[in-house]
Amino acid sequence: MVKPRFKLEMDFNLNNIKLDLHKELNLIGGIIAKDHKDRLESSTDVNGKPLKKLRPNTIASKRAKGYAKPTKPLIATGTLQKLPPFKKATSRKQSVEIEVAKSRKVIGNLHQQGTKPYIIKPKNKSKLAFTTTTGTAFAKMVKHSGLPKREFWGITNKVSAKAMKFIELEIERILKNVWAWRITNNWSIFS
Fold first, then answer.
1. Using CA atoms in the order 153, 78, 74, 59, what is the torsion angle rounded to 10 degrees?
2. Residue 35 pLDDT more than 60?
3. pTM for the whole thing?
4. Which residues lie across from 120 on neighbouring strands?
5. Among 11, 134, 136, 170, which residue's beta carbon has the most beta carbons within 10 A?
6. How far apart, in whole angstroms, are the C-alpha atoms of residue 36 and residue 101?
7. What number of other Cβ atoms are within 10 A of residue 61's Cβ?
8. Helix (H, G, I), strand (E, B), or coil: what is residue 10?
9. Which one-letter DSSP state was computed for residue 103?
10. DSSP codes joined into one string, 56-102
11. To 10 degrees, what angle do helices 157-176 and 22-41 make?
């Protein structure tokens, strides 16, 4: 009796692999930056939860300063929301670096982690002047209750999953180009 036997071999030539993902990394960097801006606009943290609301006195102070969005946490001048251009990946350096504006790194970190209560004292005058819901107030010092933790910085799970999908698809495309399939037919006679 004659039975066909097929042999399938995959010749995987590693010398043909050129793993250049800089275009995908730059696309992902843009998605991360847009997601950051959109999340702050919607007052949502990196975990998809609402950012802690501002205290009434903070809103009053932001209104008095003329800020366009006085009720939104972390948005006053827009410096934390609008990220500077990120350092793009190249075929030689396959990484993207995204960071907040240098002028906002310290305050951004304080908001990201939150603070314990602290005391505010005047630096150049004998009293502090600040806006409250009832108008301007003066004090020799203020016992601030601390900044609440507002985790605004990071990559959301949704964007992370999208990024991984982009990378997986590109690696799959690259690997398809280096696989060489060979099928051989071996006919054998079995009795």
1. -170
2. yes
3. 0.79
4. 142
5. 170
6. 13
7. 19
8. strand
9. G
10. HHHHHHHHHTT-S-TTSTT-SSSTTTSPPPPB---SSS---B----G
11. 160
